[in-house]
Write a structure and sequence with these properties.
Elements (H helix, E strand, L loop, with lengths): L1 H26 L9 H10 L32 H9 L3 H10 L3 H8 L6 H13 L3 H14 L4 H14 L2 H12 L6 H35 L7 H6 L1 H13 L4 H5 L2 H11 L3 H10 L3 H17 L5 H10 L2 H9 L8 H11 L2 H17 L3 H17 L4 H16 L3 H17 L3 H17 L3 H13 L8 H13 L3 H12 L8 H10 L8 H15 L3 H16 L3 H17 L5 H20 L3 H12 L8 E7 L2 E7 L5 E6 L11 H4 L2 H5 L7 E5 L16 E7 L12 E7 L25 E6 L4 H8 L4 E6 L1 E3 L7 E4 L9 E3 H5 L8 E6 L16 H8 L3 E5 L7 H13 L4 H15 L9 E7 L1
Parallel strand pairs: 1-4, 4-5, 5-14, 6-7, 6-8, 8-12, 12-13
Antiparallel strand pairs: 1-2, 2-3, 9-10, 10-11, 13-14
Helix pairs in contact: 4-5, 5-6, 6-7, 6-8, 7-8, 8-9, 9-10, 10-12, 12-14, 14-15, 17-18, 19-20, 20-21, 20-22, 21-22, 22-23, 22-24, 23-24, 24-25, 25-26, 26-27, 26-28, 27-28, 28-29, 28-30, 29-30, 30-31, 30-32, 31-32, 32-33, 39-40
């Protein structure tokens, strides 16, 4: 008995600690920081978020249920439990608690306290997703998955981001990767999401193709059924091809047989234009028209371009509708625009007239009258929305996005194209969905949003693209990978592009190939480049194309045959200089040739040559002391400082790992280079895009300015002091900009007799330009937005002219002669901002004013408050008092920052000056 009792006591003694540990574990979940299990159970019970969080207790699967459309505010999180988590420094737990309740701002503030890690970045991406910041979310998640492709939460969250961006096929593919992980609950739901997204997307494609094929079948078979049901589901594509079917009708009877379809389309989209059209065609003399109609039908079947001889003969025949159709099938359709407009007005077909409005806008853009194109497209879009909403509205929205993309107003471009994409999905316009994707690729890449650009390309491919669909995605992936500094992926995509059956190696291929080839030394590369340039020269015979091809050849040779490469790049610079500045490809070759030579000089340690080349590019003097030159050419960069004693200190980096847009300026201009400028009273900075415009290149307590051009000689007779102020502008209603405060002179300054004030409707571009010609000081208080107009980027919004023009743009300013060598103050939001980080020009009004003859320009590169006018006035008064502009800017900035730390925007005021 004693032994039995002893054994039982001993067994209990062994079990008791286990029970205690088990109890404690039950109360303290892994990573829970001592928080009650009920706390996390309650958080999960009320959670309605779709995103996944990495904190273990927050990521247990829970089926989400509908709240019935009612927004029920969450219960407050118990402060006692939060205090326990905070006492343990468990920021991830606190962020998860807030995240589960959808309090994302709070969650984000605690995640910001944590250092970067895959889990933290996945959770932070969920915060960005909740705010609709898809670009930032995608970048974070791509980084997580690059290091851990099976990160469950990051995969799930990436699928949600892609879905919300409209990239449904890639979202489905990503959900399937989650399903393959085999997680309880999550895998089943991921698989269901994938099936739904893929089916919904491909169903739109099937309906669009079915409607297209059913309509085109009428060309082949007179007995084919009329696609009445398809017209009700997808009226846009049916109507688009209906015109061709009517034009191709070989007889009166065949035309009249189409009347039921014409009336159905008229019923859906309003009016009677298609019924009237069929009646007009049926009344024609088919003894004469019949053969022309058969020829038209053959052209449509083969999907070939109409030869000009055929277009001209049909124009002479008097068969107006056939002429319109053939002109639209000709690559040089714009040359026939006057005739098309005249015939379109006679027909009074709103569908056709909206198309002609789009073509007129294209011509106005080609003529440099972009403001007319902008207003035309806005007006046409308004009429389209007020009528029967159709595919034409989507096309106009896309065209407006392309216009803004050409003008480098990239935020507006993206907004319009994404709107078009949403409309295309609603209307089952599959072809327009693909067009929107293609435009979004270019916009995202120009914004240096490489993650989105690649996602758009991949979605295009996943949807089947267009036929043929091999070369376009691969070459766009290759160029995007190259810009994102991912050379291995870029080279793989480039090789895949070259292997495509339909590959016609263009200049994008040649440029990307030349850049990537310096990382590898394949003996076959010489022959590959020669082949690419031969193809490009044969298909691109314009002068700018030839200059660009020479740049590519020189870039390729620079690291292999140095002397030959230098000679070719120097020749490209000279050839480009002879062409008009409107030749953007030649101008890009000029810029890239310079940056190639500058970074090559840095590579060889010839830092004096770096300064000489940069000064030559900027048209300024080579500084003898106190100067900084900085340049970036993709993964290569160089920074050279010339100190107060003329000594040179340089830094060359040949293997940058992150794009310049994502890099701090301290990486481009490291501390040893900055230190060499110690003791300088002020510093001249020589830089071209993408470095030009960076306001953090040097410490803010050091007076410095960008230098460009040379000081103009005083005008004959010596102009007296004359001040021009532009204020109280009446911005066009289409821009929806708020009215700015009225400018008033400082109370302690007597108003000079030579002050000219342009306000309200008088502040038009033509009047402002005329008044600027002999001014010695120019102040512009107005809104600023981005826009390069072919080769420039920022603009200031003025009051519209009679013809609708409202913008003071860099290209116009550059052509002016500012005889008074003025000091210019651009007190406009972002008037000095660069259009994008991948452009090859210092696209800005400050640069344009310098080229026109200004001696100095101050402008902000960020949005500024209404009080900014007083800041610019303070700088002006200091300069009038004898201070150098760079010193005046530094001192006034310090004064404003000492008064209020929220005036940090003053760090982003740009100063550009000419050299003496």
């Amino acid at each position: 008995m004693l032994k039995s009792a002893y054994d039982k006591a001993w067994a209990l003694a062994l079990v008791a600690p286990v029970l205690v540990v088990t109890f404690l574990l039950a109360r303290t979940p892994s990573g829970g920081g001592g928080v009650e299990p009920r706390f996390w159970a309650e958080r999960r019970a009320v959670a309605r978020i779709e995103a996944r969080l990495t904190y273990p207790e927050a990521d247990r699967y829970r089926p989400r249920v509908s709240a019935g459309g009612c927004l029920v505010p969450p219960e407050p999180i118990p402060l006692k439990e939060l205090a326990r988590l905070e006492a343990d420094g468990n920021w991830a737990g606190i962020a998860a608690a807030y995240g589960l309740q959808g309090e994302w701002n709070q969650a984000g503030s605690f995640l910001a306290r944590m250092s970067s890690s895959p889990d933290r970045d996945s959770d932070l991406a969920a915060v960005h997703l909740s705010r609709g910041a898809h670009e930032q979310a995608l970048q974070l998640l791509d980084g997580v998955l690059a290091s851990n492709p099976r990160h469950a939460q990051a995969l799930w969250n990436r699928a949600l981001v892609l879905r919300d961006m409209g990239l449904t096929m890639k979202a489905a593919e990503t959900f399937e990767k989650v399903a393959a992980l085999g997680e309880q609950g999550w895998s089943r739901e991921a698989r269901a999401h994938a099936v739904t997204l893929r089916e919904e997307t491909m169903e739109r494609a099937r309906k669009w193709r079915g409607a297209r094929d059913a309509t085109l079948a009428l060309l082949e078979d007179a007995n084919a059924p009329l696609p009445l049901q398809e017209a009700r589901q997808s009226p846009g594509v049916v109507r688009q091809h209906f015109y061709d079917v009517v034009r191709a009708s070989p007889s009166k009877e065949r035309a009249l047989a189409l009347m039921p379809l014409a009336r159905e389309l008229d019923r859906i989209q309003g009016g009677s234009s298609l019924g009237d059209y069929v009646t007009r065609v049926a009344s024609r003399d088919f003894a004469r028209r019949g053969q022309l109609a058969k020829g038209y039908a053959e052209l449509v079947r083969k999907r070939t371009t109409a030869p000009e001889s055929l277009v001209e003969s049909v124009r002479a025949s008097g068969e107006d509708d056939l002429f319109v159709g053939l002109a639209l099938h000709n690559k040089a359709a714009l040359r026939y625009l006057p005739d098309l407009l005249a015939r379109g007005q006679r027909d009074q077909d709103s569908w056709l007239n909206l198309f002609l409005e789009r073509e007129q806008a294209r011509k106005e853009m080609a003529d440099g009258e972009w403001w007319k194109a902008e207003q035309r497209l806005f007006n046409a879009l308004q009429r389209c929305r007020e009528g029967a909403f159709s595919a034409r509205c989507v096309e106009l929205e896309v065209r407006l996005g392309i216009l803004y993309g050409d003008l480098r107003r990239l935020t507006e471009a993206e907004q319009h194209v994404r709107t078009a994409w949403s409309w295309a999905r609603q209307l089952h316009e599959w072809e327009l969905e693909l067009t929107s994707l293609e435009v979004l690729v270019h916009i995202s890449r120009d914004r240096s949003d490489f993650s989105s650009a690649l996602a758009y390309v991949e979605e295009w491919s996943a949807r089947g693209g267009r036929s043929p669909n091999c070369y376009w995605p691969h070459i766009n992936q290759a160029h995007t990978y190259y810009l994102a500094l991912r050379p291995e992926a870029a080279r793989a995509s480039l090789d895949a592009a070259a292997a495509c059956p339909e590959a016609t190696l263009d200049l994008m291929y040649g440029a990307t190939f030349a850049e990537l080839s310096r990382a590898t030394l394949d003996p076959k590369d010489v022959e590959r480049l020669r082949h690419a340039l031969d193809v490009a020269r044969a298909t691109n015979p314009m002068p700018g194309d030839a200059v660009y091809a020479r740049y590519i050849e020189g870039r390729f040779a620079l690291d292999r045959e140095h002397a030959r490469g230098v000679a070719l790049l120097t020749q490209a610079i000279e050839d480009a200089r002879k062409l008009p500045s409107s030749d953007t490809l030649a101008r890009e070759a000029w810029t890239l040739s310079y940056s190639s030579l500058v970074t090559d000089a840095g590579r060889t340690g010839d830092f004096a040559r770096v300064l000489e080349l940069m000064a030559g590019q900027l048209g300024t003097q080579v500084p003898r002391t106190c100067a900084l030159a900085a340049a970036v050419h993709n993964e290569r960069s160089v920074a050279v400082a010339r100190g107060p004693g003329g000594e040179l200190v340089g830094d060359y980096q040949g293997d940058r790992k992150a794009p310049f847009a994502d890099s701090p300026s301290t990486q481009l201009v490291p501390e040893p280079v900055r230190r060499a400028l110690k003791g300088c009273p002020q510093v001249e900075v020589l830089a071209w895009a993408p470095v030009f415009g960076r306001t953090d290149l040097l410490p803010s307590d050091l007076p410095w300015s960008f230098r460009m051009g040379k000081a103009a000689a005083p005008s004959v007779g010596g102009a007296s002091s004359r001040r021009l102020v532009v204020s109280s502008v009446e911005a066009p209603a289409l821009l929806q900009l708020p009215r700015l405060p009225t400018w008033t002179p400082p109370p302690d300054e007597p108003e000079p007799a030579a002050l000219e004030l342009l306000t309200g409707s008088d502040a038009t571009p033509s009047r402002v330009l005329s008044s600027m010609s002999d001014a010695t000081e120019i102040e512009i208080h107005a809104h600023g937005i981005s826009d390069p107009v072919l080769s420039d980027a920022s603009l200031v919004v003025l009051s519209p002219e009679g013809n609708g023009r409202y913008a003071l743009t860099a290209d116009i300013v550059r052509r002016q002669k500012l005889a008074g060598s003025p000091l210019v103050f651009l007190a406009a939001c972002s008037a000095g901002r660069l259009a994008s980080t991948t452009t090859h020009e210092p696209f800005s009004l400050p640069a344009a004013f310098i080229e026109a003859g200004a001696r100095a320009v101050l402008a902000s590169t960020v949005d500024i408050p209404d009080a900014a006018g007083r800041f610019f006035e303070g700088v002006r008064q200091r300069i009038r008092g004898g201070a150098a502009p760079a010193v005046a800017l530094r001192d006034e900035r310090n004064k404003w920052l000492a008064r209020d730390a929220r005036n940090s925007w003053t760090h982003h005021v740009l100063l550009v000056e000419t050299s003496d």
